[in-house]
Design goal:
Structural class: alpha+beta
Helix content: 40-55%
Strand content: 15-25%
Largest sheet: 5 strands, antiparallel
Number of domains: 3
Number of helices: 11
Shape: rod-shaped
Strand order of the largest sheet: 2-1-5-4-3
CATH architecture of the largest domain: 2-Layer Sandwich
Oligomer: single chain
Mean pLDDT: 81
Length: 468
């Protein structure tokens, strides 16, 4: 047993997952950017405040050299109006000169190198007794002494604010993400409504409703091309189904006629005793009908093979003039009996083709021309150079014109333009269909033209070389 394949995700789920991933990444970076910006603002703010404190302390130390007050007294008044700010001054022998709080800042700056700058790059973060500090360790030299100055700010409030901000941003961004995902799901769900409508219309199309067409004007622009392609597919299906229906009716008719003849003749013969000669004539008549049925079935099988690409061409270099002359020799007796003359004109053209199939196609055209050419008339076969890489073979016979509305269907199976042609026809209506299949197997084309004077079948084939 084959393991069932994994069912693919729906378009809605795919889009929502993609949007969720994109939003998560974007919102994560937005959150980090906001937090980083706020933290940087706090660092800049603290750096400015620490710089003010250090400048005040240094100014006090410089002014105190000429004064009569002790450094302790002047440093106590150096900084005012700043809350949560701590500073400490020590001399060159690491003796404490002054500190404004009961916090030994030297413990904070124990492993911190001294800096001469007071900007944000010189600031360090310290931890002491469960509290966070941001500070600067600086050396200051006066005329007769070098001081170690340490200033710090308690940033516990900042950290608490950042934590609160992070939680708030997380909730806001999570809500925004969920709301965006809901909007994306609704947008995709609503956007797929036209597809669901198209699916409902497609389910209503049955073999007896192939004339239904979807309206491109009632769908969004993105689906218009798909609807047009679907309508084209329906056109082809309708044409194929119509041809198949006609073909089934035609083949039933074609098969019924000889079978009816055989049954009727056999019933009449068995109605009373007959002589051996009469029974022999009956068998000959039935044999003719059976041979007709056999040829019809063989032709249909050949057409089926050609349509499925099962034909193998045995190509060889052929002289068209010689091939046409050989066909003329075959029809010479029949043409004389019908009082019809055969004429050929054209240069010596060499083509690569399957001799048997090419003769079969030309024989069908010539047989068809003989069937509808009046006595004392002539059939003309002409070859000509159509382009540097293609030639044409034209089979033309005089006769009544074929109505234009019938010309596109002449190469269909069992098709006859009118009943008068059917009465004179001895074939099954497959000759032109076989001819077209042979020409197309050679990558060629065949067309028919008819006017008041004559009817012309024109074959166009590619050529390998041309000689005169």
């Amino acid at each position: 047993m084959h393991k069932a394949g994994k069912r693919p995700l729906s378009i809605t789920v795919r889009v929502v997952l993609f949007v969720a991933l994109t939003i998560s990444i974007c919102l994560f970076f937005v959150q980090q950017l906001l937090l980083s910006s706020v933290e940087h603002h706090f660092i800049e703010q603290d750096a400015d405040e620490l710089a003010v404190i250090l400048h005040a302390v240094e100014h006090t130390l410089t002014a105190g050299q000429n004064g009569q007050q002790q450094p302790t007294q002047t440093l106590a008044k150096a900084v005012s109006g700043h809350h949560g700010v701590y500073y400490q001054v020590m001399d060159s022998q690491n003796r404490l000169v002054y500190r404004n709080a009961d916090i030994d800042l030297s413990l904070l700056a124990a492993n911190t190198p001294a800096s001469a700058d007071y900007n944000a790059k010189a600031i360090h973060n310290w931890q002491l007794d469960g509290k966070a500090y941001r500070g600067v360790f600086s050396l200051f030299t006066t005329a007769d002494q070098q001081y170690q100055v340490i200033a710090a700010i308690d940033i516990s409030f900042h950290e608490h604010f950042l934590q609160q901000l992070q939680r708030s941003l997380g909730l806001i961004l999570l809500g925004s993400a969920l709301l965006t995902l809901l909007a994306a799901w609704l947008a995709v769900h609503q956007g797929l409504n036209p597809l669901r409508g198209l699916s409902a219309q497609m389910r209503d199309i049955q073999t007896n409703k192939l004339d239904i067409r979807l309206s491109p004007g009632e769908v969004p622009a993105e689906l218009r091309h798909m609807v047009q392609s679907f309508n084209l597919m329906l056109d082809r299906l309708e044409q194929g189904f119509t041809k198949l229906s006609h073909f089934s009716a035609d083949i039933a008719h074609e098969l019924r006629t000889p079978l009816t003849n055989m049954i009727t003749q056999t019933q009449v013969s068995l109605s009373r005793a007959r002589s051996a000669d009469e029974y022999q004539n009956l068998l000959f008549s039935n044999l003719e009908e059976l041979e007709r049925l056999n040829k019809m079935i063989s032709d249909m099988l050949w057409l089926a093979k050609s349509q499925n690409g099962l034909l193998t061409l045995q190509k060889q270099t052929l002289n068209l003039a010689d091939e046409i002359q050989a066909i003329f020799d075959f029809f010479e007796a029949l043409a004389e009996e019908s009082g019809v003359s055969l004429h050929f004109s054209g240069p010596v053209i060499l083509v690569q083709a399957d001799r048997t199939l090419l003769r079969h196609a030309l024989t069908n055209l010539l047989s068809n021309a003989l069937r509808y050419t009046a006595q004392s008339q002539s059939i003309t076969v002409t070859t000509a150079l159509a382009s540097p890489d293609s030639i044409t073979i034209s089979v033309e016979n005089p006769g009544p014109p074929i109505p234009p509305e019938h010309l596109p269907y002449l190469f269909e199976r069992f098709y006859r333009a009118d009943q008068s042609r059917q009465r004179h026809s001895e074939g099954a209506g497959l000759g032109l269909a076989i001819t077209k299949a042979i020409v197309e197997a050679h990558e060629g084309q065949i067309n028919v033209e008819s006017d008041l004077e004559s009817t012309r079948f024109v074959i166009r084939l590619k050529i390998e070389k041309l000689a005169f």
